[in-house]
Specification:
Blueprint (H helix, E strand, L loop, with lengths): L7 E4 L3 H12 L2 E6 L9 H4 L2 E7 L5 E6 L14 E7 L4 H8 L3 E8 L5 E6 L5 E7 L5
Parallel strand pairs: 1-4, 5-8
Antiparallel strand pairs: 2-3, 3-4, 6-7, 7-8
Length: 139
């Protein structure tokens, strides 16, 4: 029996663009389903929006996202929740650089007081990412 906690990101209209960006960063398989493909295509403003998307990236990472239909309150992006990427002995610099492109670095990716490499970036879609890279058990 397995229980998983996966982020589900809500966007106004940028879910497809965000998931395609995250696929370019993390790799993996992307599945996308629009409102129109699910029988809600009568409204042209709704038909092309992403009802559900899922990126299944290597190492078990799963990110899901969808667009908020017109008439519903728009999502509020911010830093109330951070997505955290942690590694032991795996260099995260390439992922950091990719997610930082077009975003805002809140805490530079550098040595932290506890000895790990740490950083916080809000990506180009307003999603907050925490990075923590420890040297690993063999260090």
């Amino acid at each position: 029996m397995t229980i998983r906690l996966n982020p589900y990101l809500n966007f106004r209209t940028e879910a497809r663009e965000a998931l395609e960006f995250y696929q370019s960063v993390f790799g993996g398989e992307l599945s996308l389903s629009t409102f129109g493909e699910n029988g809600m295509g009568d409204d042209p403003d709704l038909a092309g929006l992403l009802m559900h998307g899922m990126l299944t990236a290597p190492h078990g990472m799963v990110i899901m996202a969808g667009d908020t239909p017109p008439g519903m309150d728009p999502p509020t992006l911010g830093t109330a929740v951070n997505l955290s990427i942690n590694s032991e002995g795996v260099d995260l610099r390439e992922l950091w650089d990719a997610l930082s492109e077009g975003g805002e670095v809140a805490v530079p990716f550098s040595e932290a007081p506890w000895g790990d490499i740490f950083g916080l970036v809000n990506d180009r879609f307003g999603i907050a990412w925490l990075f923590n890279q420890s040297p690993g058990p063999d260090a």
